[in-house]
Design a protein that fits this description.
heterodimer, A: alpha/beta, five-stranded parallel β-sheet, two-stranded antiparallel sheet, 7 strands, B: alpha/beta, Aspartate Aminotransferase, domain 2, Aspartate Aminotransferase, domain 1, globular
Chain lengths: 158, 363
């Protein structure tokens, strides 16, 4: 199912625990590194890089493929994709093969065929959104940056 | 503020002009061009035509109701189209939808200064605007206590369309990040905050933010009364023999009334001008005779304010620039407050009597 609403994305973030990040980079200037670090500091997720060119990011061992990841950790709750749109069909096929529950396409990672295939296979699909931004929407970080979270609260941030 | 304007996010700044500067500098650099309504705040005209021009960014000013001229003035290096929902002080209402079409046809965003309407009377983003600025000093604050500004982004404009290299190429001011790639739809807001506001240094102070929030809590209640009182004052002045003209949208031409009905269905604000018979001297005598109305350059205060633009808010402009901005020497600007309408009219009546008496003396 394509998760088009804020409530659907919130529910996904609440039920997920394991995130396999395909295309994660160890370069601090790359968006994927920022998202990786942010999700790790939140503490509630197991976040693991999937990148055949890397040994590890911040001491977290990288896997060359989703299959290698699944052999150790089982099926991931979310496959978070930082790849060129032209490269993501193969990622979707692998995500389906290892039994991933959801696939998350980051900003600009838009491939209609890949989206349709993941949707048809029963995965939850998020398109053209950032996992860090959506996570921050619900824990107050977005509002701290002056961004409209859609949540109006009278509570002081803890 | 982002919620009130229906935007993706917002940036609070030390003033409305600071918000506008952050908007401009997030998109334009030396060699670029801006297009701006001619019917805008005098401070905007000087900011663009003097200070920003010195940075190598040129601005063309076009009457906001001349859509053909506006379209013709767009250049290949134009980065932004600016206008005010309700022009200060002329009261000219901008055709937001038409201006947004012109901007979008050329791949540039429309920035609307929504100060005179406040989001209670108009939400420009719903009419095609991409960016909104507010001088929060005015109706949002509501009590003349605080200077502040807000810049809001709708999140709808594609800043990765190739015309905005400041957002879509590596930024030396922010670790070489490409804002459109890293932040997606948040690219503009993140650059405006993390790079431009940081370097300009015009952040909103915490105490000022708190004071402005007190005002925003009562915005809808105040706006209803502001609009109702303004209509009654305009009607009174229109019936007075010593008043030459009243530039309230209720008495404007059919086209302006149609724009008011479309964009400002709850009322076209509470700031308008009128002209005294007798010109510049009459304006001075009128203001000197008032007791209740405060002689102040601010607008949007709970109390009623009056000013003579030719000798104050627009005194930096040449006669031609002043006329282009819709200001005549005899025009008096009112910001109608929340007081009892009988008191407001009693005071105006005394002012007009003083004008008549002065005219008799000088004759």
């Amino acid at each position: 199912m394509i998760l088009a609403t804020v409530a659907q994305r919130q529910a996904l973030l609440e039920r997920a625990h394991s995130i396999a990040m395909v295309g994660a980079s160890s370069n601090p200037l790359r968006p994927s590194f920022t998202v990786f670090s942010y999700l790790r500091t939140k503490g509630r997720y197991s976040v693991v890089p999937i990148n055949p060119t890397l040994q590890a990011i911040d001491g977290i061992a990288a896997f060359a493929s989703l299959r290698d990841y699944a052999a150790v950790h089982g099926a991931p709750d979310i496959v978070d994709v930082f790849r060129k749109p032209s490269e993501v069909l193969a990622v979707v096929d692998e995500a389906i093969a290892v039994g991933a529950k959801a696939i998350w396409f980051q900003y600009g990672v838009i491939n209609d065929e890949a989206i349709a295939r993941a949707d048809a296979a029963g995965l939850d699909v998020v398109i053209d959104k950032c996992l860090k931004v959506e996570s921050a929407r619900f824990d107050g970080g977005l509002a701290t940056s002056g961004l409209n979270s859609g949540v109006i609260t009278s509570r002081r941030k803890q | 503020m982002a919620s009130l304007e229906g935007g993706l996010g917002a940036l609070a700044t030390a003033s409305g002009l600071a918000a506008q500067l952050c908007g401009v500098l997030s998109l334009a650099q030396a060699g670029d061009h801006l297009l701006c309504s001619q019917n805008v705040y005098g401070g905007t005209i000087t900011q663009l035509s003097v200070t920003i021009k010195r940075m190598g960014i040129e601005t063309t000013f076009v009457p906001v109701d001349d859509l053909a001229a506006m379209r013709a003035a767009v250049r290949p290096n134009t980065r932004l189209l600016l206008c005010e929902t309700i022009g200060n002080p002329s009261g000219t209402i901008a055709d937001l939808h038409a201006l947004a079409s012109i901007a979008h046809d050329h791949g540039i965003p429309l920035l609307v200064d929504n100060t005179f309407a406040s989001p209670y009377l108009c939400r420009p983003i719903e009419h095609g605007a991409d960016l909104v600025v507010q001088s929060a000093t005015k109706f949002l604050c509501g009590h003349g206590t605080t200077v502040g500004g807000v810049l809001v982004d709708s999140g709808r404009f594609d800043f990765g369309n190739g015309r905005f290299p400041l957002l879509s190429t590596e930024s030396p001011g922010y670790h070489g990040k490409v804002f459109t790639e890293t932040f997606g739809e948040y690219a503009f807001l993140m650059r405006a905050r993390a790079e431009v506001l940081r370097d300009v240094g015009a952040q909103l102070a915490p105490m000022d933010a708190w004071l402005l929030l007190q005002g925003i809590e009562t915005l809808p209640i105040r706006m209803e009364r502001h609009v109702a009182n303004a209509r009654l004052v305009a009607n009174y002045l229109r019936g007075h023999a010593d008043v030459a003209w009243v530039a309230h949208p209720d008495f404007a031409d059919a086209q302006q009334r149609e724009l008011a009905a479309r964009y400002l269905p709850r009322g076209a604000g509470a700031v308008f001008t009128f002209g005294l018979r007798g010109g510049r001297d009459a304006g001075r005598r009128f203001i000197d005779a008032l007791e209740l109305w405060s002689h102040l350059a601010n607008v949007g205060d709970a109390k009623s304010l009056v000013i003579h633009p030719a000798s104050t808010t627009h005194s930096q402009l040449s006669d031609d620039e002043m006329r282009n901005a819709g200001v005549a020497p005899e025009s008096v600007r009112l910001s109608v407050g929340l007081e009892d309408i009988e008191d407001l009219i009693w005071d105006l009546n005394n002012g007009l009597r003083a004008v008549a008496a002065g005219a008799t003396v000088s004759a």
